[in-house]
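REQUEST ID: PR-0412
SUBMITTED BY: lab tech R.K.
PRIORITY: routine
TASK: structure prediction, single protein chain
INPUT:
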Amino acid sequence: MKILKTFGERYPISAFLILCFGFTWSIWFTVPFFAGSDWSLGRIYVGAGFGPALAAIFMNQLCGHGADIGSKKWLLWFSAFFALLFGLYFSILLTGDGITAEKLSQARPAGISVTGILGVIVSAVIGSFVIASLAVSRSKALSSVSEWRVSIKWWLIALLLPSVWMMLGVLMASMTGEKIQAEAVEHNLELQTWVLYTARSILLTFLVVAIGEEAGWRAWMLPRLQQRFSPLLSSVFIGIAWGLWHFPLFVIGQYSDPPEMVFAKAGACIMLGIVFTWLYNRTGGNLLMVVLLHTAMNSSPRFVPFSEQMGVFLILSLICMIVFDRMWRKSRIQL
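STATUS: complete
OUTPUT:
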């Protein structure tokens, strides 16, 4: 343990990335062994592999300013979210799942099995461990996941910015006669089924995906990079790591694109990472706000059709953020 602590103190970024990639990839590359070709069952096991948050928690524990794991407050958080996550994951065994509502209508329930129950328990345990450890952490950056007392304007930006980009893109596409990709919002599900599916998807995105990623990339790695580099350059570094981190999902079939598309993913993560950095810095390092933005990014396509023109407004936003905040200048960041 002393060797690990010494390495973590001397090379914190390297230690974080080794833990982050090591944990995630060791879980995700074994998903086919447990789930086979069942996408829904694979989705459950993928939920156990969000290494960025786990790496951040481990690094803070190593340095002595992490959470009081096992305390009464920690157990309350853990118990509440274990029950919620167990229920959400268990419902996937009963209904199946899909990346869009249309895919869900074609999905088959994974059914109750030893493998399925094991996946539900493991993913629920890891997810609730992450949430509890962040919420009671002695690190202000990590515990801000429960800090909701933020100006209403940041709530609106975090929740609505992706939808605004998409709606403006649809408007431009309709004016120019370009194609609008409405597949993600089209479905033949009953309204009640669609509402329940969408609610489950948003909850899992918020509790597992967004918290599991943002606690590591933004709340832990970003402040440390900004001690040495500008917000813009820090965003580029994180974007590359963030994009490449997704590589196993292309290989195991959770993403339908071929593995080489991970480089396009990295490019997208660099651009989006600038937005996340801007919001994180503007809110004084509030983890909850970037978690909400991440959730909105992933969930908005379920409500608003996608068009390539959306990219125009994303790029315009990036230019404004970079120029008006002078993101090429080094910031004074306190950990």
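NOTES: The mean pLDDT is 92.
REVIEWED BY: pending
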